[in-house]
Recover the amino acids of this structure.
């Protein structure tokens, strides 16, 4: 995107002669203008569950075709926010999208309804898809009933109230996340283990050597002539093969590496000092503030993120899909520090967010490498912006909590119902308050989910055994870490978010890429950036310019209300709990 916006070259691409700069500007403007329809004037275009509009009270229709609490079997929406809810489909390889779509079809569109209507794990008494957890009367779980004044678990109050029940898609999402963790480790070890060890050894050797950052022009080539190899490049190539092996690739020096040698690297000591200092600050906070997490718990969280950082990074680099360690952080903290919901949230933040943010920083460094930004300058920028953005986030959050009416409820204006925060809160209930033992211990209702760890560990081995013999095997395109891990977005995402995402990915990254390759190369990434930027700008303009001042207060018509009339929006359950009765096991 940066290159296209700053260079004047404009070659025709499959008959299109508009410059990338003009293309970006026009798509951006169109995206901002169009978002006024699904984002303000006609929200039914966003929640386009038209089949449920004809049978609003039919629970089965809402379950299957709904987009708020249904499986989204009618994948149509006119809102880029819905399409790109799990990330822009234009920047994900189509083969990776097929992995995700395969998981969606098998698990959420086939297994989920079968289990739901069979009332497996009492799921029929809850919505088929919901970001909430439920009690034994079919109502959202009131966690305040099982907490002390110090926000610690009250076992007696828990026994007097209710165990926690999960919707079937929530159950399957947890099973997939369990399988994704072990599949991530197995897949990485089998397909990339040797490469990781080789690169780790080489990098460690380079760190111990004195750095050489002198710029060396290529002999007999003009500067910037493209890729060039070092004198020893490809010395191991077998003359009978057409591709270099990994040693060849590691020995080769591309033009970006050569040009970046003009700049000194950011010393490793800078990273170590920053990491140690911030870890010390974190330990002070957890020890002297009432979060109920000891200092060694924080180190454990950071250790989990560090151990899984490389496997997650490899999968993300190849597929553009990030495997989440969110659940495993909650699970481990719940086992080691049970009955502490605040500690669980803090532990998860340090483990999961540190890993996620580290990948974003690595992505920044990669972009800076291609853009020829001095590493030391980029380090200072990252550090400064991290501090500024952290303070900004706190300020914005406090402003929102104080000034947005009904925030984090279904009555919130402009859709500020906090779905991701709700899932995070539910996780703190399950793992921080109730604890993994009550969910997965002997006789527990959800104990069978533990088998997902075994399935995730073994299935990549079976796949690898059959795929390694044939370099052209289609099985090499199957990444079980992606198949399992991508659906961790459900909830709060719905089947609609995945299905329309996959359809758009197919159109642009398969059909257009194969039929109009020049157009795709010139405009596809620009289109993604323009749509994302236009959406973000449109959201800000609509909220602060129209909604927050109250100019749309009382504005209602068919296009703002039709999708709210039926079971899809209100999240009806297939079975109702008789008044005064409960469901679930009698002995718990």
């Amino acid at each position: 995107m940066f290159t296209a916006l700053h260079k004047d070259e404009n070659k025709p691409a499959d008959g299109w002669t508009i410059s990338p700069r003009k293309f970006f500007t026009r798509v951006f403007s169109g995206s901002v203008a169009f978002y006024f329809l699904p984002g303000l004037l006609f929200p039914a275009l966003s929640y386009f569950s038209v089949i449920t509009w004809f049978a609003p009270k039919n629970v089965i229709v809402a379950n299957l075709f709904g987009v708020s609490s249904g499986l989204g079997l009618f994948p149509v929406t006119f809102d880029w926010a819905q399409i790109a809810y799990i990330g822009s489909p234009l920047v994900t390889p189509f083969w990776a999208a097929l992995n995700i779509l395969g998981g969606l079809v098998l698990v959420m569109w086939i297994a989920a309804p079968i289990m739901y209507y069979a009332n497996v794990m009492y799921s029929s008494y809850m919505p088929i898809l919901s970001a909430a957890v439920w009690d034994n009367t079919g109502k959202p779980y009131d966690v305040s009933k099982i907490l002390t004044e110090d926000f610690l678990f009250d076992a007696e109050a828990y026994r007097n109230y209710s165990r926690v029940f999960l919707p079937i898609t929530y159950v399957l999402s947890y099973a997939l996340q369990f399988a994704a963790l072990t599949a991530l480790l197995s897949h990485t070890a089998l397909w990339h283990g040797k490469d990781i060890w080789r690169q780790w050894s080489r990098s460690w050797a380079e760190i111990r050597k004195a750095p050489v950052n002198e710029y060396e022009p290529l002999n007999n080539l003009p500067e910037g002539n493209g890729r060039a190899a070092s004198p020893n490049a490809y010395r191991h190539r077998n003359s009978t093969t057409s591709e270099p092996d990994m040693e060849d690739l590691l020995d080769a020096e591309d033009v970006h590496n050569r040009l970046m040698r003009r700049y000194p690297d950011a010393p490793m000591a800078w990273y170590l000092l920053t990491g140690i200092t911030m870890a010390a600050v974190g330990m002070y906070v957890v020890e002297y503030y009432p979060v109920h997490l000891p200092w060694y718990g924080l180190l454990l969280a950071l250790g989990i993120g560090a151990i899984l950082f490389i496997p997650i990074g490899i999968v993300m680099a190849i597929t553009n899909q990030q495997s989440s360690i969110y659940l495993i952080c909650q699970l481990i903290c719940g086992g080691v520090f049970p009955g502490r919901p605040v500690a669980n949230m803090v532990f998860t933040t340090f483990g999961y967010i540190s890993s996620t943010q580290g990948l974003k920083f690595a992505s920044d460094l990669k972009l800076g490498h291609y853009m020829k930004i001095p590493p030391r300058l980029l380090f200072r920028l990252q550090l400064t912006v991290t501090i500024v953005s952290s303070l900004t986030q706190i300020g914005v959050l406090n402003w929102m909590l104080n000034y947005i009416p009904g925030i984090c409820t279904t009555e919130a204006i402009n859709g500020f119902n906090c779905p991701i925060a709700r899932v995070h809160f539910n996780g703190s209930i399950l793992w921080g308050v109730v604890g993994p033992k009550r969910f997965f211990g002997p006789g527990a209702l959800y104990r069978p989910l533990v088998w997902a760890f075994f399935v995730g560990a073994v299935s990549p081995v079976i796949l690898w055994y059959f795929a390694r013999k044939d370099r052209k095997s289609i099985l090499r395109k199957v990444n079980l870490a992606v198949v399992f891990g991508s659906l961790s977005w459900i909830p709060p995402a719905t089947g609609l978010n995945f299905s329309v995402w996959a359809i758009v990915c197919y159109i642009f990254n398969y059909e257009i890429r194969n039929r109009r390759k020049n157009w795709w190369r010139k405009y596809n990434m620009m289109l993604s950036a323009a749509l994302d930027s236009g959406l973000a700008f449109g959201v800000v303009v609509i909220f602060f310019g129209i909604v927050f001042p109250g100019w749309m207060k009382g504005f209602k018509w068919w296009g703002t209300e039709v999708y709210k009339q039926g079971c899809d929006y209100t999240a009806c359950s297939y079975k109702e709990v008789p008044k005064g009765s409960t469901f679930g096991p009698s002995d718990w």
Q: What stands out?
A: The first helix runs from residue 2 to 6.
